[in-house]
Amino acid sequence: MLSMTNKARESRARRKLAKDYYVLFKSRKKKNTDPDDLGGYRIVDCENCIERGRNFDLSLDDVEDFVKEMDIIST
Prior knowledge:
- By secondary structure, the protein is an alpha+beta fold.
- It is 39% helix and 17% strand.
- A three-stranded antiparallel beta sheet has the order 1-2-3.
- Strand 2 (41-45) and strand 3 (50-52) form a beta hairpin.
- The longest helix is centred in the last third of the chain and has 15 residues, at 60-74.
- The termini are far apart.
């Protein structure tokens, strides 16, 4: 089986999160000027409350784990 690229994994996570009314944001960090931006991902709910990754500190694996948790809860 072929492994998915990071872009494909990210797109898949975005689609699954959108079904549960979450939005995935990726940091646009270019320089190390903001100590609160760690260059990863953030998950925000439909009320604009940060669910996970306040400092953009989630990896793509962390995002996928959150999606799996949501799948378990919703079924």
